[in-house]
Amino acid sequence: MSNNKFKFSINYNSNIDKSEFILEDLKPISDEFTVIELIKDAKIQLDELVNKNIFSDFEILKISGRLPLPIAYLIAHELQHFFNVVAVYYPQKNIYVVTNSTNDNYQVGDVISSENNQKMLLTSSTKDAFSVKVSGDILYVNCTLRVKDGNFLVKEVEEKINQLIANQKLKGGKLLKINGKSSVLASFVIAHKVCHLYANVAIFDPKIDGYVVALRHGGVYSVGDYLPQENNIQNQKKIVICGNANRGKTVIKDGLKVILIEYLSSEDYYSISGCPDGDGAWYSETCQNNPSLARQLKDVYKVNFTPEFARNKALEIKNINIPLLIFDVGGKMDGEQLTPANQIIMAEANGAIIVGGNEAEIALWRRCCQELGLRVMAEVTTKLEAGNDSFECQNNVFITTIHQLKRGCNFNDSEGIKQLAKYIAFEEN
């Protein structure tokens, strides 16, 4: 069942034998809404479901969809006490991962098949893939972008949060703020652990340059309240990755996310999509493991490229207050000019990485960037065939040719992407 009058879509169904309740296809109705609007809307819907008493006597809650992290915290807190087991969908492997359990037959990190609902045994593992530290009222988290085993990651997250609680680093209070790179799976685990320790829990979202209250346990703040962050970053780099369609812009963005962790603190850079094509952080690995599923989910999550989307995306980029922001845009042109939507979005950048298949394509986007007053920082020629990457710096522009650039490639094998990341990290404005 679903209700289309809301800003955040929540669909649900259940088994006849009441073994499991499923929240599915969770997603924003439109990317035009802020996380504050979305979480307030989701809270209203969850309250309605709770008041209908539809969760009674179910054993397992399964959750799937495109969840902003604050809403993951909200759902974990609001619904965990109704179910003995909570399992969250992990599209990269087409499985559900247990994030909370009071059932002896299930442990955090256990895997449930999405095809036959049977527990599965996976053999790989992660180590030191998630870091945590507490400073004042802030819990800093960092999920390395090289993690591919989300089921093992949640075990590490649970262990490290338990250590902080045991060592009185997380000892409860009026407010806990959570800041840093995380994942939906990790967020569910953390929420389960801290939600009853603190009166309010607020999650940092760079898109609003502050924290949004996601949990209320008798505190003074309500779900959806905004708490500004205290610092103001100067000399930010906001870099747009632009170029014709199907030239590898999103792959380069994903590669930079992976490699930049070698040079920058996780709190110092951030990446988003500037186009509504449905790609998420999950897409590249899912595409490598299950291309048909990746395409199916991408089609579900895709939204329309409207003028409202462009204006809201531009405002989002403007508001992000972090030393380095990287975003990509769509590759459609209006003749030989930028589309009005891309003009609005790209105008919030102060630098550009141009990606093309040849010099003519790059020259066209170079002119468009110059007309917007953007400094061209790098020009990337992409090749599908094998070859040795080349790179040099000409007139303060990083020039590179990158070979075999495709989704699922090992970015550490790409010398061009590694050198581009190093240049972006250390180049001065």
Automatic annotation (TrEMBL):
<protein>
    <submittedName>
        <fullName>Uncharacterized protein</fullName>
    </submittedName>
</protein>
<dbReference type="InterPro" id="IPR013409">
    <property type="entry name" value="CRISPR-assoc_prot_Crn3/Csx3"/>
</dbReference>
<dbReference type="Pfam" id="PF09620">
    <property type="entry name" value="Cas_csx3"/>
</dbReference>
